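--- STAGE predict ---
source: upstream dedup step, 1 unique chain passed
mode: sequence only
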Amino acid sequence: MTPESNRLLVAVYGTLKRGLVNHHLLSRAHFLGEDCMHAITLYDLGPYPGAKAEQSQGIDVEVYAITPAELEQLDELEDFRAEAPDQGEYTRVLFDTVYGAAWIYLYNPDVSHKPVQRRGSWQPDSLIGQSA
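--- STAGE serialize ---
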């Protein structure tokens, strides 16, 4: 792994979390721990959530140290387009975590009519519209 100051970190809040459908993409990544992010809010998109950079009461995330190859796989899953970040389904932005700056995937499309989650941990089929 690269020196700590140059390592790639990702913070995940949805289907990439342990025990969920896309976690296999992080099966070789180094799990650093959990954090509670107050700079993101989740929206229910059906089978997965989308995050927006909006203040919340705290969304639970898992933070991983990853390789550039793992980041490429995540970019593909999230339809992140480095050449045109606003045109993919997600863009990625660095946010501070207790483990250092980590990439978080933010949902690009409109969410104005989607149920919102402003605190806690996302689970499949469990988003509860919370408006606080």
